[in-house]
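Reviewers asked in the last cycle whether our approach scales beyond single polypeptides. To address this, we selected a multi-component target totalling 568 residues and predicted its structure end to end. The input consisted of the following lines:
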Amino acid sequence: MAAITLNKARTIIRKTLAKSREMELKPMSVVVLDAGGHVLAFEREDGASPGRFGIAQGKAYGAVMLGMAGKAQMARAEQQAYFMAAVNGVYGGQVVPVPGGLLVRDKRGAVIGAVGATGDTSDNDATAAMVGIEAAGLAGEA
Amino acid sequence: MAAITLNKARTIIRKTLAKSREMELKPMSVVVLDAGGHVLAFEREDGASPGRFGIAQGKAYGAVMLGMAGKAQMARAEQQAYFMAAVNGVYGGQVVPVPGGLLVRDKRGAVIGAVGATGDTSDNDATAAMVGIEAAGLAGEA
Amino acid sequence: MAAITLNKARTIIRKTLAKSREMELKPMSVVVLDAGGHVLAFEREDGASPGRFGIAQGKAYGAVMLGMAGKAQMARAEQQAYFMAAVNGVYGGQVVPVPGGLLVRDKRGAVIGAVGATGDTSDNDATAAMVGIEAAGLAGEA
Amino acid sequence: MAAITLNKARTIIRKTLAKSREMELKPMSVVVLDAGGHVLAFEREDGASPGRFGIAQGKAYGAVMLGMAGKAQMARAEQQAYFMAAVNGVYGGQVVPVPGGLLVRDKRGAVIGAVGATGDTSDNDATAAMVGIEAAGLAGEA
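The resulting structure, written as structure tokens, was:
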């Protein structure tokens, strides 16, 4: 299994932020987690609210821990809210089950980490993050 | 009260995993808890997401602590979500009230532990775990 | 980076337990964690006290999260107790800084997980676990 | 009060990492927090252990929340360990009272954030982080 290097993580963040500026989104925050859900890199744009690290991390953390990206998590939460609430209990309240949490896969399809983006609508967050992941030569799942 | 021995716990896990392979389920994780809700044995198949221990344990923990298997817990959660949320508060966020958490009973019907399985749909998780429990000569309640 | 497969984790546990029996140690419990500190496999021998999962996991978790095996953690705790107490706060109280928490390295020296053993003296726990790790063809650091 | 911009935070991190490479330190992790103790940016070098975010954040968080840099925190912990333990209770276990947590001040001396570095000895962590803060045209207190 390949790991996300710091260089790749930087590329993901910079390209996500560049895409956010191009889309004229609100100030964006982006985290990159490794395959174990641990933080590799994070940046918060000027003007973003102070609590954005936790939201970004929560979007990415649930994705990697469950092996389920933000859109699938949201579908499950819409269907069975008490299940995602329970999952959140198990993971110490660190799961934010909405788009903007993306799985990152290597060439063979193995999950090697996740990206969490937050600042604008959940769908816009996800769109920008996907551009960042692909700019790093990796495959994203929103 | 008979206890689940480590040998029995191993049998439960191996046979649950064998059944999962036969059913062609996604990578499975299985935990066996004792009558006090404490972990006896656990295995996570290659390819399962890293957070599966907590989900498996949460399914089994609620079962043994409440004396209520996963299907009954889910019925209660569907009816009265705030009750299961409150139970989760009491038990430190460790309860995942869906199928795949099975009670294990001895010959006289006493609860001697629980099994938690996670990886595929909740119903498939429960089906595989029941096969594992019965292969160990014990009675399961899904 | 190679991962510890479930097969390797099973070998580590079985050989640690076999060595424990040969050394006539008290009932042993052994956990294997992946490179992100997440549980791969665990077994608790008959007669062990119910709370052994948490101790085993705590020995291994601190090792992998800090990249520092149990003996080095203990040395740091002896020297600077408040530092290890603080680390424990950061990691949610999951760190048990004594021998019996061993790093597992691949052929190139990268940490690919950790083993936690508990039941007898900390030094005996570490001795048995090292035998288990080596039996799986991996390198341990106690 | 001037704030630490994302550009400044990036400079702090890059220059701290550059200094770490020049000093041939172990893989380093660096966080920059704002005046409210919230994460602005973080990077973890390849080869660092997965739990380094929490340690870096803990060093910086205590600094900004108490208005006391790592060296002063350590002195207090050496003198009165129970006080720092109590502080940790107040701040949710997020304080790591050793060098490598540096206050960042603006031209008038107001605290505008903190930097946390971890990877090598606490003193080396602090030395590298100070170089990073000064490279961004700010004043650090170790």
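The first strand of chain A starts at residue 29 and ends at 34. We regard this as preliminary and will revisit it once experimental data from Aim 1 are available.
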